Amino acid sequence: MTDILMPALSPTMEEGTLAKWHVKQGDTVRSGDVIAEIETDKATMEVEAVDEGVVSAILVPEGSEGVKVNTPIARLAGEGESAAAPPAAAPPAPKAEAPKVEAPKPAPAPVPATAPPAPKAQDGGRIFASPLARRLAEQKGIDLSALKGSGPHGRIVKADVDAAQPGQARAPAAAPAPAGRPAAEPRQVVSLEQQGIAPGSYDLVPLDGMRRTVARRLTDSFRDVPHFPLTIDLEIDGLLAARTKINALLEKEGVKVSVNDMVMKACAIALKRVPEANASFTPEGIAMHHHADISMAVAVPGGLITPIIRQAELKGLAEIATEAKDLAERARNKKLKPEEFQGGTFSVSNLGMFGIKTFASIINEPQGCILSVGAGEKRPVVRGDQLAVATVMSVTLTCDHRVVDGATGARWLQAFKALIEDPITMIV
């Protein structure tokens, strides 16, 4: 018998939903056959069989949520084995349960209801670990600073804690914070009832995987990344006129370029002209990216996702428009591949279509900057000593101050402004 395990479809995936089975008990499968669809917090992906055999048991029914990575989800009988495996041999179908924890030692300290605060390395730097890994380490008494993370950018995940040796005990508590700088306490979660909201006066919508991931990542970023915004106004009448001419030329090809497509192209060129802004902070140093891989924020049911236009500085507007439309459509249908939404170097978030004038976004780690784009609207402007009317769009660049300082952010905005206000320079 061969167990088919719940696959890890992305570096950060710890659990997923078994959305659909394409096989049933008794079916013969060959290597490469699509056997199931797995829904993660970002996408729904098809799973192919690695081994050959007859499906002897479906261990996890379709629709099951919170199925942990590496959990057996089905069983194959090989050549010469009976396809009808005894029911007792099959483990029960897993549900969305908390991970099993080792038996507690005598007189254990009570486990907090919420995840423990992010631990700090002995040199004062933050240890990057998933909330589940922190909770398990807290329960097992394991010092996270003694572990090496196998997740993206060295992040410690559940598998690293599970593989930790029992001797890797928690290090002695650090000395108390100096007077005048009290140590921060974990945020206490207070129920709505405790805040005076009557039971039954609201409907509770359970958190899905995407909303949990968005909440965790943005909380981590806003708390741990020292950031600041820079806002500038752009006159876009020339951009709108150029877009009209471009779309007239592309009409026969069925391609329509949007303002956002032109913004992403201008971002990519500006990043090549001011490469210091196309960077990420790492504990080892500043990573200077070779290409401008532009992540575009796309609103989807239950949250948002950021598919990526790779090497945007090398692509024409027609190619960017076609690729952006395809990525956005597949993002809304949860059909993106992990490599299509992981690993960008710079993000663009556009709320102009909703009439939002100006806003500041939270940085999409590990990127160094994110650009927030507002609506273009007619505003009075002063040219020389004369009052005139122009179509003005406000944009805000949020910067990771560990990577991009104020002067660098300002130089990038100057380069971006020149490209937007004189779009012919995008092709020069």
Major pleated sheet:
6 strands, mixed
As for the number of domains, it is 3
Strand fraction band? 15-25%
Task: Enumerate the strands of the largest sheet in spatial order, edge to edge or round the barrel.
Answer: 9-18-17-16-12-15
- Which shape, going by the Cα principal axes? globular
Tell me roughly what share of residues is in helical segments: 10-25%
How are helices and strands ordered from N to C?
A: EEEEEEEEHHHEHHEEEEEEHEEEH
Unreliable stretches: 85-124, 169-184
Class inferred from helices and paired strands? alpha+beta
Oligomer status: single chain
Q: What do the pLDDT scores average to?
A: 82
- Annotation, overall tally of beta strands: 18
Work out the helix count. Answer: 7
Rg over CA atoms, rounded to whole Å, is 26 Å
CATH 2nd-level architecture of the largest domain: 2-Layer Sandwich
What attributes characterize this protein structure?
21% helix; 428 residues; globular; single chain; OB fold (Dihydrolipoamide Acetyltransferase, E2P); 3 domains; Dihydrolipoamide Transferase; six-stranded mixed beta sheet; four-stranded antiparallel beta sheet; alpha+beta; Chloramphenicol Acetyltransferase
Characterize this entry briefly:
The chain has 428 residues and is α+β, with helices and mostly antiparallel strands.
Please provide a written account of the structure.
- With 428 residues, the chain is of the alpha+beta class.
- The chain folds into 3 domains: 2-84, Beta Barrel (OB fold (Dihydrolipoamide Acetyltransferase, E2P)); 113-168, E3-binding domain (Dihydrolipoamide Transferase, Irregular); 224-427, 2-Layer Sandwich (Chloramphenicol Acetyltransferase), CATH 3.30.559.10.
- The chain is built from 7 helices and 18 strands.
- The protein has a 6-stranded mixed sheet with strand order 9-18-17-16-12-15.
- β4 (34-39) and β5 form a beta hairpin.
